[in-house]
Amino acid sequence: ARRVDRPPTDARVVLRRLQPRVVGGQEGTRLDRVAAMAAIVRALREDRRGPVELPVRSVKPKLTREEIGPVIVIRRESKRLYYYERERLVRVFRVATGQPEYPTPLGSFRIVVKWRGPWWYPPPSPWAQGLKPVPPGPGNPLGTRWMGLSVPAVGIHGTPDAASLGYSASHGCIRMAIPSAEWLFERVEVGTPVFIVPR
Fold first, then answer.
1. Mean pLDDT for the stretch of residues 115-129
2. Which of the residues 71, 142, 173, 176 is marked catalytic?
3. pLDDT tens-digit readout, 66-95
4. 140 an active-site residue?
5. Cβ-contact 159, 141 below 8 angstroms
6. In whole angstroms, what is the distance from residue 75 CA to residue 133 CA?
7. Which residue from 77, 65, 61 is spatially nearest to 20, judged by alpha carbons?
8. Is the distance from CB of 67 to CB of 189 less than 8 angstroms?
9. CA-CA distances (angstroms) from residue 91 to 30, 70, 149, 197?
10. Which of 76, 78, 153, 187 has its CA 20 to 30 A from that of 104?
11. 10 labelled catalytic
């Protein structure tokens, strides 16, 4: 088994030269120990000499290349959001990112929650001092869609302030035009990878 067993590798997305690439997704192998012992015992009982073929099974990965869905790459300084279907670029959107004192974080994240008609709650910072929560509807700072990332209080969302797009204007979030956020919302899932890079 030590010579035969090889674990499968799940497919995952990595960023190479600012482009998403899918790696992994390989089947593994595993010796069927129960059937192997039965084959050895049978050969011994029958006094057979020579090799005994031991059964080896393939082990599928939990996630294959074909199961990888959309990928988002955000270029913070360029103020652009790139939407990929696996490795193929589909659309580019102009966005707003965080102000210098509240920068959009860099790194590898995932979408962890999706809300239609979100409430906006003021963040605990001087930037939002004195502001009250805003229910869904016209003028909501989050527009009509919220896609929260795996980093506290940061997400991708629409904005009624289209003039802020292309600038460092948010409290760390990624703002999009409301129709663009609605388009994106319909195509991503919880778990979609999001890469935020500097340039």
1. 92
2. 173
3. 999 999 999 999 999 999 999 999 999 999
4. no
5. yes
6. 30
7. 65
8. no
9. 42, 11, 20, 17
10. 187
11. no
